[in-house]
Amino acid sequence: MTYEIIKRNYDRGLWTKQMVKIAVKKGLITAEEYETIVGEPYE
Prior knowledge:
Layout: H1 3-11, H2 17-25, H3 31-38
């Protein structure tokens, strides 16, 4: 799973913010990438 795939899935509505947050916890993307994808700070 890459940043590009996660972003595309989020943009298409296939992923929720919570799912993207889980990707950060699993180390698939960084907190900065989370902020870029969802447009909100990672908490």
